[in-house]
Structure to design on (272 residues):
């Protein structure tokens, strides 16, 4: 994706309704990083499926799943539970019947939408929607609080007061919102600069897509385990810039992993 197209995608996103996961910037970074890693053949199929979009790029459609949820249209209501999974306990012992009944969670959604995208016999609009869902949900799966605990709704009910450069007078937020928004926003970079920065980092270790049906579960449980191992819950319900500086590298790594894994998933789903 060239720089001018990325800037256009950013402008389009800024005009969209407020998102609720990784913020617009985080989701667009996942889409942009994935697109930079696609083969020419896979990229051509992506462009074809998104040909009717205002900007036919993964970055530009990365917040669509949140936008339709905010509008509460039929598909938005249907997909409301697809953005997360709540897993009780620090061991992240995922039980599908308990945590994802009838496939109604992010793990089931990724698997189902990947199957739709891979089926060339499905109607074109269904495959386009599946592509847009996957761009978003793979990003969500790498945000630790989207695999958080049910007792506080993935940190949504864990209230925080943030006082720092972004909110010198103090601002009420919650742990989920901090990971969605403040960690990346506080870096002070626009999308183009942030994507270039993340792309310039040393390559991540090779991470082949696990067997079909296992990738989404593996990525989501990985996110869940980070909540405990990385001490994501701050004591005292207060955070400063020190918390953001401490955890931003992890957030950036999750964005990079999501982009890399999304690219791999799309390559596999769109293969001839």
């Amino acid at each position: 994706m060239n720089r001018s197209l990325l800037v256009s995608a950013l402008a389009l996103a800024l005009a969209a309704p407020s998102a609720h996961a990784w913020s617009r910037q985080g989701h667009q970074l996942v889409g942009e990083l994935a697109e930079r890693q696609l083969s020419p053949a896979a990229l051509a199929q992506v462009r074809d499926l998104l040909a009717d979009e205002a900007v036919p790029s993964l970055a530009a459609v990365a917040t669509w799943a949140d936008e339709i949820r905010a509008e509460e249209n039929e598909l938005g209501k249907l997909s409301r539970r697809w953005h997360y999974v709540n897993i009780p306990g620090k061991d992240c012992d995922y039980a599908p019947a308990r945590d994802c009944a009838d496939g109604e969670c992010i793990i089931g959604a990724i698997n189902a939408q990947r199957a739709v995208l891979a089926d060339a016999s499905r109607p074109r609009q269904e495959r386009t929607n599946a592509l847009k869902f996957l761009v978003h949900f793979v990003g969500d799966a790498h945000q630790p609080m989207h695999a958080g605990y049910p007792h506080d709704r993935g940190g949504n009910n864990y209230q925080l007061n943030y006082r720092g450069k972004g909110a010198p007078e103090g601002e009420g937020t919650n742990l989920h919102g901090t990971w969605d928004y403040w960690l990346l926003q506080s870096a002070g970079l626009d999308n183009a600069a942030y994507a270039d920065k993340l792309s310039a980092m040393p390559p991540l270790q090779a991470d082949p897509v696990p067997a079909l049906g296992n990738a989404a579960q593996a990525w989501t449980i990985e996110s869940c385990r980070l909540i405990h191992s990385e001490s994501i819950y701050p004591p005292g319900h207060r955070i400063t810039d020190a918390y953001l500086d401490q955890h931003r590298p992890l957030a950036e790594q999750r964005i990079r992993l999501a982009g890399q894994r999304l690219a791999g998933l799309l390559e596999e789903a769109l293969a001839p």
